[in-house]
């Protein structure tokens, strides 16, 4: 509640008497003030005499706002008081005894006795809320800036310059059997932000030789923006490099602005190249594949799959050599216990999440099966292929 600025000590006033006045004739402010002092004099005794109270500062300056219209006057009387509640109430009641102002009949009615301290307290509370919000916002901003600064410093330190083309890349590009090809440095930094350290950027629409050579040796996922620029880079990648999988940011989004959840979802939903091209009806001439370990181009895997399927068996391979044959219904347990080292599993059954998890623990990089089941957690460096992908 707003308190009018009165000519009294703001620390002394505790209450504000607010009254309305009506007169049957035209009067002015001095007339009303004179009536208040004159008609209350001696009414309340010496202790509550208005003149003495005002001199001692226990009553502030009496404010009167009066206006005249149609031969009558109406207005408001404001009296600040530092008396206690009882004395203030008595003084307020005394105002209603005023029945004349000058020659005019009058009526005074006390509207309210306001606690000035309550109004001040509310003002303090409201302002304190504003200041606290400013402080919290400032603190949050400082915290966010600090985290961002430290995080960016770490990320930039982890970005390396890779190959003769000096491409921005994560520190694990050389160590990993699988890499993620993105468009630019900002994409590499965003993936690093979420712990993905095997990304490398093409840095433009002309695919560098470094990317082409890497694609011959590693399992490559092209992870591109969900816009026209991403479409153009994808077409060139498919023509000059050996790409295994394709992942895209949601339409209209760039890889550099994706959240962790969006990145994981996009990589989890990556598609083999042939499937992506067929689904999106792309008119593109694929580069002849040169990978010795590119499963969907190897005739021997298809022949092995047919043989194993006819015998209801699965096999663990190390390169092209079979190191372990397993009845298909014992595959998971035997792989879990196997002492033989291998890099590929071929099975006529469904590739399940449990099989993927066990295979990943054993360091297996490739699984060929009848179909891919409900696999929701896909290791980045593992290749899952169905029989249709290895069929020549």
What does this structure look like?
With 392 residues, the protein is α/β, with parallel strands linked by helices. Among the domains are: 159-280, Dna Topoisomerase Vi A Subunit, Chain: A, domain 2 (3-Layer(aba) Sandwich), CATH 3.40.1360; 295-390, AICAR transformylase, duplication domain (Cytidine Deaminase, domain 2), CATH 3.40.140. Helix content is 39%, strand content 24%. The chain has 13 helices and 19 strands. The strands form five sheets. The chain has a five-stranded antiparallel sheet. A five-stranded mixed sheet has the order 9-8-10-11-12, with helices on both faces. Residues 1-11 and 292-299 have low confidence and may be disordered.
Summarize this structure as a short list of keywords or feature phrases.
alpha/beta; Cytidine Deaminase, domain 2; five-stranded mixed beta sheet; 13 helices; 19 strands; 39% helix
């Amino acid at each position: 509640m707003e308190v009018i600025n009165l000519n009294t000590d703001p620390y002394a006033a505790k209450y504000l008497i607010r009254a309305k006045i009506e007169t049957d004739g035209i009067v002015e402010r001095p007339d009303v003030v004179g009536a208040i002092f004159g008609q209350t004099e001696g009414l309340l005794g010496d202790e509550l005499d208005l003149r003495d109270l005002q001199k001692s500062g226990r009553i502030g300056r009496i404010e009167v706002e009066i206006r005249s219209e149609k031969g009558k006057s109406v207005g408001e009387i404001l009296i600040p008081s530092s008396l206690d509640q009882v004395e203030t109430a008595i003084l307020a009641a005394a105002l209603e005894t005023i029945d004349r102002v000058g020659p005019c009949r009058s009526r005074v009615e006390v509207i309210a006795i306001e606690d000035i301290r309550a109004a001040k307290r509310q003002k303090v509370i409201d302002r304190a809320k504003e200041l606290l919000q400013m402080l919290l916002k400032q603190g949050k901003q400082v915290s966010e800036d600090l985290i961002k600064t430290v995080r960016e410093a770490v990320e930039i330190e982890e970005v390396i310059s890779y190959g003769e083309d000096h491409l921005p890349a994560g520190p694990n590009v050389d160590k990993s059997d699988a890499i993620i090809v993105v468009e630019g440095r900002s994409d590499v930094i965003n993936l690093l932000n979420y712990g993905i350290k095997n990304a490398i950027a093409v840095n433009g629409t002309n695919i560098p030789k470094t990317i082409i050579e890497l694609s011959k040796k590693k399992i490559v996922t092209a992870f591109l923006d969900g816009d026209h620029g991403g479409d153009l880079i994808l077409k060139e990648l498919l023509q000059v490099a050996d790409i295994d999988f394709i992942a895209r940011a949601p339409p209209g989004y760039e890889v550099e602005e994706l959240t962790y959840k969006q990145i994981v979802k996009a990589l989890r939903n990556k598609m083999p190249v042939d499937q992506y091209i067929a689904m999106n009806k792309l008119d593109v001439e694929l580069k002849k594949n040169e990978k010795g370990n590119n499963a969907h181009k190897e005739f021997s895997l298809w022949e092995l799959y047919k043989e194993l399927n006819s015998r209801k068996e699965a096999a663990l391979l190390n390169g092209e050599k079979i190191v372990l044959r397993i009845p298909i219904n014992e595959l998971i347990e035997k792989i879990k216990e196997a002492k033989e080292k291998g890099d590929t599993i071929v099975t006529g059954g469904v590739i399940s999440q449990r099989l993927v998890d066990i295979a990943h623990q054993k360091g297996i990089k490739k699984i060929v099966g009848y179909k891919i089941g409900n696999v929701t957690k896909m290791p980045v460096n593992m290749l899952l292929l169905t029989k249709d992908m290895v069929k020549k």
